[in-house]
Here is the input.
Amino acid sequence: LLLPCVHIWDSVTLQTLQHIGLGSFERGVATLAFSKADSGAFLCVVDDSTEHIMSIWDCAKGTKQVEIKTTNEAVFEVEFHPADSSSVVTCGKSHVYFWTWTGSCLTKKQGIFGVSDARPLSD
Here is the structure.
């Protein structure tokens, strides 16, 4: 039985730099993203379990920083805010969530789908 994990490697030498999450991801990895604001210091992973557990990892140390259940619906994408590694968005079947990471806590706000009353600004 192979346990799902994420391998991080050097793209030039192909040398493995880190194994992330060995034994932590149920059934597999649904989606993942590296932080951009700090040159990929963190990795956010959403597993393929029924509760789609999201975890954030320190890439250099290989340690989990935080994890949380996201939703029972399929999660198709996760992404860090390009200028702020404490902000993450997930989206999938019938949902979009905006997450804020503070220390060992992740809090979410749900995006709202629908028609907007917003009007374009006039010249």
Summary: The longest strand covers residues 84-92. The chain has a mean pLDDT of 93.
